[in-house]
Write a structure and sequence with these properties.
This protein is of the alpha/beta class. It has 12 helices and 11 strands. α9 runs parallel beside α12. It is globular, with a radius of gyration of 21 Å.
């Protein structure tokens, strides 16, 4: 039986079996809240949450795990960063041309309420940032860069190391949206010197939905955006300065975080190679009537791509793939209208295909045949 699920950019499936086992064990056997008491059940739950935080710090390439706050997803983390920075009136923010609405909608709100100026970074026709043009921008040209590390539309991987080096020389802060990249490609925030990173647990990390968070290199730059109980400094109505409590009020999703820890500890070995993926990509690109949306530079290509057909709408194409072959994809704008305007696919969007470690070469061969079948209808 083929793995016909190619919508991992929305949420990964399947998960490692240990994820469900860990959540079930917590819900049915272990129980306990996070950091609110000293008896064994609570200590055990708290320890697992902190183990997950440590594992994420290792994956992000940072040493200060306490600077990671858990949230419900990357969107919540991005909001915590963008609103917590308390940008001054009229601040200028540069964004990559491939940003998701998890970035653009908060920025739009800040534009309307604080007069924020939003500008799009110079880039190639695939949305990859033009490093030479970035270097030529004046040092005082912005207050903040927001970069989508791996596009959820065409799979472009932005060269964060080079971008960060330039930003540091100009005194710019960088927010990295690692929603698609963490777990898929290497992230080394400590080495790159990225200021803030938002991530989610349910995509490349293969964890459950409702998990995610953000990392702040210098948390003192952020103000809390949510206020409430933390189990610490309970005598005060003020939020504590202690991390991660300052940015993590209320009871976290303990069950989900324990499931995420299980995913991090039991990541499967990929069942296909990157060459298998590129062979699949090349075969699809040769099919009649198909236009592929991918990185111009293969070294900047993640295992995600989109296509359109000269005759079929994106919705019809995706529906035919599912009805005739059981192939599960996503069609439309993928919550990223800026990316589609950049790629020239707005407003109809594209049909998106995103892989997981569980796909085999046979699954990719099946995908090629399915797309070939639909293109001949």
């Amino acid at each position: 039986m083929h793995n016909s699920y190619f919508d991992n950019a929305a949420t990964s499936f399947p998960k490692p079996p240990q994820v469900a086992e860990a959540i079930s064990r917590y819900l049915n056997e272990e129980g306990g809240t996070y950091g609110r008491a000293a008896y064994e059940r609570v200590r055990n739950a708290t320890m697992q949450v902190e183990d997950c935080r440590d594992a994420l710090a290792h994956l992000l390439g940072v040493n200060d795990a306490e600077n990671i706050a858990f949230t419900a997803n990357a969107t919540t983390g991005l909001n915590a960063i963008l609103f917590g920075l308390e940008l001054k009136l009229g601040a200028r923010v540069w964004v990559s041309p491939l940003e998701h609405n998890a970035v653009m909608r908060p920025l739009r709100h800040l534009q309307e309420t604080k007069g924020l100026e939003i500008k799009t970074l110079p880039a190639g026709n695939d949305g990859s940032i033009d490093i030479a043009a970035l270097e030529s921008l004046p040092a005082n040209d912005c207050d903040l860069l927001v970069i989508n590390h791996l596009s959820n539309v065409n799979g472009v991987i932005q060269p964060i190391r080079e971008i960060a080096q330039i930003a540091h020389t100009k005194g710019w802060f960088i927010i990295l949206d690692a929603s698609q990249s963490l777990g898929e490609i290497p992230v080394n925030a400590g080495d790159w010197g990225v200021d803030f990173i938002a991530f989610t647990g349910h995509k490349g990390l293969l964890g459950p939905t409702g998990t995610g968070g953000f990392y702040a290199k210098n948390p003192s730059l952020l103000q809390p955006t949510i206020f409430g109980g933390t189990g610490s400094l309970s005598e005060s109505y003020d939020m504590p300065d202690e991390l991660p409590d300052r940015f993590q009020p209320g009871t976290p999703n303990v069950a989900g975080i324990i499931g995420l820890l299980a995913a991090l500890e039991n990541r499967p070995m990929p069942q296909h190679t990157h060459n298998d993926f590129f062979e699949c990509l090349n075969a699809i690109e040769k099919l009649p009537g198909v236009r592929l949306y991918k990185a111009n530079n293969p070294e900047q290509q993640g295992e995600l791509f989109s296509l359109t057909h000269e005759r079929l709408s994106t919705g019809d194409f995706a529906q035919l793939l599912y009805d005739r072959h059981g192939i599960e994809t996503r069609s439309g704008l993928h919550c990223a209208p800026l990316a589609h305007r950049t790629l020239g696919t707005f407003p109809s969007g594209t049909v998106r295909f995103s892989l997981s470690p569980y796909h085999t070469p046979d699954d990719l061969a099946y995908l090629i045949k399915a797309i070939a079948d639909v293109t001949t209808l």
